[in-house]
Design goal:
Elements lengths: L14 E3 L9 E5 L1 H6 L6 H8 L11 E3 L3 E3 L2 E3 L7 E7 L2 E6 L14 E2 H16 L6 E13 L3 E11 L5 H9 L3 H15 L8 H23 L1 E2 L21 E2 L23 H15 L6 H26 L9 H15 L3 H7 L13 H12 L5 H9 L9 H14 L3 H11 L29
Antiparallel strand pairs: 1-3, 2-9, 4-5, 6-7, 7-10, 8-10, 9-10, 11-12
Helix pairs in contact: 3-13, 3-14, 4-5, 4-7, 6-7, 6-8, 7-8, 9-11, 13-14
Bound molecules: adenosine monophosphate and magnesium ion (MG).
């Protein structure tokens, strides 16, 4: 196991050394064994608990919290930073970050803690994203505790260990650019290229880096849109330089199809609604472009930004075609797809369930209103060369049977909070990790929200 942290090489203007808080009666709630194996972490549960609660250091590595800035809900905040998280080390080339491990110099008066509720949501959602093949930080473990945390009511503190090659955000660049610290902007860009994109070294490496970020961001967003994921807080400090989904808070998977879906109940202006995500990501990329303007010619940045739309549409269209069982797009396909989505919207149908049911050949299980559309669809399918079985296989590998519905999270959270029982977390972990598989016996987990959960609200409080 490697003990050093590459990030620390950047120098102390990029971070502060921190000391994680000691939680009362800390215990492992769940461990992502597969990830643990792939990181080559050979530790007993007891040793893993010590590491993931922040009690034991990772070899000689000192935990550190990084400093960044960011545009939050459209407004620039000159200084943010890891207010409740710290990097504790690296395993097999991946950074381990503890979220909820106590205050840091960037906590801005807040308590540095995370509640069990939001930690379970982050943990399971990151697994769901891996299952859906959406780039993301991935959680390794949840540690629960008896330490009280005050939110709307008293809850218990927990720590999620999340893993990524890098947790660098657009906001890291914005901080130094806003202070006209051009040498630090360059140092950070060099660091990202050297460690994560060595193939970009050479002439025009900064422009190549920016183009890579534009592309990976577009691909991430296209996959969010295709799978109905809404992040909820797309501030530029929550945008990863590697194009990973990061900082799970009031996220939500769209259940009833509705493009103006807003998952974050604190987002009164609907700035981060589902349908605005592609535009907001581009806006954030523009902020990154501003931050890199000391390294890259403005015209070249503008040109690179123009490629965003193309990457996004290509990835999204490819995914939607597979969802509908079409080998490639032909004239009229986007109308066919959009008309189906419009029908889902007007009939208040569940997005993922409806998409999954499309592969049940000839079965019109969406009601009479879909008859005309299904006829058009059958005519279109007749021009495909694939067999119905081949098509069903393709469709079922991109239309998930299981998505992380809020009410499923709520059941797991209540059981964990009230009864200290974590079996529901394990069940969801296994379903969401392989969401395209049938999982016989778990049909009820594909159900729409029951009445008691219809008005569950998710806010920024976490
Ligand atoms: P988020 O939108 O959750 O990514 O958080 C925005 C900023 O607030 C980040 O700098 C976080 O580190 C910080 N933050 C959020 N919650 C807390 C907390 N309970 N204690 C300290 N800092 C926090
Ligand atoms: Mg954040």
């Amino acid at each position: 196991m490697k003990n050093s942290l590459k990030f620390s090489e950047l120098g102390e203007e990029f971070y502060s050394i921190v000391q994680p808080i000691k939680l009362e009666k800390s215990h492992l709630v769940h461990v992502n064994e597969c990830l643990k194996d792939s990181l080559k972490i050979n530790l007993s549960d007891k040793e893993l608990l010590s590491l993931c609660s922040g009690e034991e250091k990772f070899g000689t590595t000192k935990p550190l919290s990084t400093i960044y800035a960011g545009h939050q809900f459209g407004y620039f905040v000159p200084q943010l930073g890891d207010g409740r998280s710290c990097l504790i080390g690296e395993a097999n080339g991946y950074e381990l970050s503890l979220k909820g491990a106590g205050t840091t110099p960037y906590s801005r008066g807040a308590d540095g803690l995370a509640v069990l509720r939001s930690s379970i949501r982050e943990y399971l959602c990151s697994i769901a994203m891996v299952g859906l093949d959406i780039p993301t930080t991935e959680a390794l473990a949840i540690v629960g505790s008896d330490t009280d945390v005050i939110r709307e009511y008293v809850e218990s503190a927990a720590v999620v260990t999340r893993v990524a090659q890098s947790h660098i955000r657009f906001g890291h660049f914005e901080l130094f650019a806003s202070r006209s610290q051009h040498a630090e902007v360059k140092k950070l860009a060099d660091f990202v290229i050297e460690n994560y994109y060595p193939q970009l070294k050479g002439e025009d490496s900064y422009l190549s880096l920016f183009k890579t970020v534009v592309r990976s961001t577009a691909i991430m967003i296209a996959r969010w849109q295709a799978q109905g994921f809404s992040h909820g807080v797309m501030n530029s400090d929550n945008m990863s330089i590697l194009g990973l989904t990061i900082d799970y808070g009031p996220f939500g998977f769209m259940e009833k199809y509705n493009p103006s879906f807003v998952c974050n109940h604190s987002d009164h202006q609907a700035r981060y609604s589902f349908e605005r995500q592609p535009t907001v990501a581009l806006w954030n990329l523009q902020r990154l472009a501003d931050a890199l303007s000391s390294l890259i010619d403005k015209e070249k940045l503008t040109k690179a930004l123009e490629e965003y739309q193309e990457f996004l549409v290509k990835e999204y269209t490819g995914l939607m075609c597979r969802k509908f069982g079409l080998a490639e797009v032909t004239k009229g396909d986007s109308d066919l797809i959009n008309d189906f989505l419009q029908l889902l919207y007007s009939r208040g149908q569940d997005y993922s369930r409806s998409m999954r049911s499309l592969s049940l050949q000839g079965v019109n299980n969406l009601g009479d209103a879909f008859d005309v559309w299904f006829e058009r669809y059958q005519i279109r399918l007749a021009s495909e060369t694939s067999s119905a079985d081949e098509r069903a296989l393709m469709m079922n590998s991109v239309n998930p049977k299981f998505i992380f519905r809020n009410y499923l999270a709520e059941v797991a959270i209540r059981k964990a909070e009230d009864l200290y029982q974590y079996d529901e977390i394990d069940t969801l972990f296994n379903l969401l990790k392989n969401p395209f598989d049938e999982h016989p016996g778990f049909e009820s987990y594909t159900n729409e929200a029951p009445d008691w959960a219809k008005n569950l609200s998710v806010s920024c409080s976490s």
